[in-house]
Amino acid sequence: MTFRSVFDAPFIRSEFDKSGINTQFIPTIWKYVIQNPNCEWRDIPSLPSAAYSLLSSTFKPCTSSVDSVADSTDQLTTKLLVKLQNGASVETVIMRYDSSLGKYAGNPRSGGPRSTLCVSSQVGCKMGCKFCATGTMGFKSNLSTGEIVEQLVHASRLSPIRNIVFMGMGEPLNNYTALVEAIRVGIIHAINKFHDDLPNLNLAVSLHAPVQDIRCQIMPAARAFPLGKLMDALAEYQRKSGQKIFIEYIMLDGVNDEEQHAHQLGKLLDTFEVVINLIPFNPIGTLSKFGTTGDEKVTIFQRILRNTYNIRTTIRKQMGQDISGACGQLVINLPNKKSASVASLTDIEDLRP
C-alpha cells in the first residue's frame, strides 16, 4: 500500500471530512510532526480516536527519506539528497549565516546565527535555462505539497530553519497549487495571482538579461513570455502589493555583463522598487557553455546600477566551495559533473525593505 504524506494538505482535509473528523486538528498534527519528525501517531496528544486510526491506515509523517548529506568544509552549507517515495530524488540546501558579523548600511549588524533553506519544487525543470544544470534533466514531475514540506522536516533535523526560499530544483510557479499549499504551513500569468493568494511573501524574478533577444538565447522559455508583458505583470504586482521585487541576474561573461547591459537594466527597472541580486555564474561540469564574469567586471556592473540608477544591488557571496549546491547546480545524475563553488543567496533578511 502506498501511504500519503501527512503534509499533502488537500488530501488530508478531504479524508478528515469524509471520516467526520474536525479538520481543525490538522495544523496541530503538522506542527507536532515538524517538531518531532520521528514520532508515532499515538505520540500526538488529544486527537479523536478516529484520527489515530485514519492516520495509521493512510498517512506517514514522511514519505521521503534523506539519501545523503554533504557538508561544505566551512560548515556553512549543507546539501541534502532527498529520495522520494516513487524512487526519484531532489536536492535541498541549508545555508547558514551569522548576521552579527560585519556591517549593514554602514552600521553594526544585529542578531546572530540563522539558517535559510533552499527548497526544490519539481524533479527537473521544463524551463531549459542554458546556464542551469537542473534544466539539463528536462521536466520529470511536480512535487506534491507533502514532498515540498518534507524537505523542511528533514532539514530541521540538522539545523533550525528560520527562512525558506523556493530557488532549488524546478520553477515553483509551474507547480503553483502545491507551492501555495506548502507555503501555507517567473510564470507571468501566476504573478498577480501569487500576491492575491500569498500577500506577505517576497517575489523573486529570474530576469538574467535586460533585453528580450538575450533572454531568449539563455532562457528558451522566455520566447513564450515577452519582456514587455513580464514588466507589465510586475508593475501590476507591485501596484497591488506595495512590496519590493527581487531581481535575479546571473552574470555570464561576454553575454549579459557589459556596461551597456548594466545601463539597459537600470533603465528597464528605473520605475520599479527592486533589489537586484548579481549572481556569479558557477560552471556545471563539461556541460558549461558560459564563462564566469570576473570580480572587477561584476563590481563595475554593480556600481553603475547603484550610482547611476540608485538601485540597491547585491552580489551573492560565495559559500561552500566543495559540494556543488549553488544556484543553477542542483541536478540528479548529471554526467561529468565537477565540484564547483556554491554561491548562496544573500541572507534574505538583509534584503527586506
UniProtKB/TrEMBL annotation:
Its cofactor is [4Fe-4S] cluster. Signal peptide: none annotated. This is Radical SAM core domain-containing protein. One of its GO terms (molecular function) is metal ion binding. It holds the Pfam family Radical_SAM. The keyword tRNA processing does not apply. Residues 111-322 form the Radical SAM core domain. Keywords: 4Fe-4S, Cytoplasm, Iron, Iron-sulfur, Metal-binding, Methyltransferase, S-adenosyl-L-methionine, Transferase. The keyword Iron-sulfur applies. One of its GO terms (cellular component) is cytoplasm. It comes from Ambrosia artemisiifolia (Common ragweed). It is found in: Cytoplasm. Gene3D superfamilies: Aldolase class I. Its main location: cytoplasm. InterPro entries: Aldolase_TIM, Methyltransferase_A, rRNA_lsu_MTrfase_RlmN/Cfr, rSAM, rSAM_sf.
